[in-house]
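Tokens as discussed.
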């Protein structure tokens, strides 16, 4: 029997890619419900109108669902708090509340590397390090992680927070900073991780944090625990993709 999966924000960049990925991997393994505030264009009529600021709409979307992949929200780090509050904070609470009440098994929450972006760039962040946002967008995602931990430990809802890095197809990305290279996540790598988060056995711990970046030569986020716990095996490396080899230092250099 296929696993019923609700994808919120299904018409966003990650939502569209994830839907295509899950359909291609095994169309019979997942019964997808695609929720978005925008019109859903799907040949199999799997779309539902979903505004996460509306608790009743979240409750309706969660009925009969096994797993929610919560991608809905504003993804821009420069977004003012007035817009983050209804979409990323209130909307995230609504989704968790509706999922718990509907007896959903698990929520995979799209967090962000921005929750720890306040650490110096030469520090590799581990999942067990305290959050250190550099902007209010990161604060909104830190709220989502905290809310997920509450619902996991207090209300029995399994939650995995995936700290997504710089999500981008190589062909669409021309301006690169050192930080972006270290935090890049190739879309197929991220989709692989999200699928593993849908399927993973969490054991007795109902809450987990996963790091969503590719196998970059220099990594902003440590992948050790994510590889071990979720079987994550990313294949892309930003430094190889953009042919950024490191030159050996000459012995005569000072």
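Sequence:
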């Amino acid at each position: 029997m296929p696993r019923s999966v609700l994808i919120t924000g299904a018409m966003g960049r990650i939502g569209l890619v994830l839907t295509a990925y899950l359909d291609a991997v095994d169309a019979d393994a997942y019964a997808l419900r695609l929720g978005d505030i925008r019109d859903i264009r799907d040949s199999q009529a799997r779309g539902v109108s979903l505004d996460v600021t509306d608790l009743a709409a979240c409750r309706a979307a969660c009925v009969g669902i096994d797993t929610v992949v919560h991608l809905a929200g504003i993804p821009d780090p420069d977004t003012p708090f007035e817009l983050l509050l209804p979409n990323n904070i209130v909307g995230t609470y609504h989704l968790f509340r509706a999922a718990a009440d509907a007896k959903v098994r698990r929520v995979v929450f799209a967090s962000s590397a921005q929750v720890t972006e306040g650490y110096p760039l030469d520090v590799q962040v581990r999942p067990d390090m305290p959050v250190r946002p550099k902007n209010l967008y990161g604060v909104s995602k830190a709220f989502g992680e905290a809310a997920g931990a509450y619902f996991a430990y207090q209300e029995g809802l399994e939650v995995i927070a995936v700290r997504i890095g710089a999500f981008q197809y190589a062909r669409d990305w021309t301006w690169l900073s050192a930080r972006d290279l270290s935090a890049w996540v190739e879309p197929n790598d991220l989709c692989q991780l999200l699928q593993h988060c849908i399927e993973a056995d969490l054991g007795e711990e109902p809450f987990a944090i996963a790091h969503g970046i590719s196998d970059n030569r220099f990594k902003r986020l440590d992948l050790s625990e994510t590889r071990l716990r979720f079987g994550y095996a990313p294949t892309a490396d930003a430094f190889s993709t953009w042919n950024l080899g490191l030159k050996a230092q000459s012995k005569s250099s000072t």
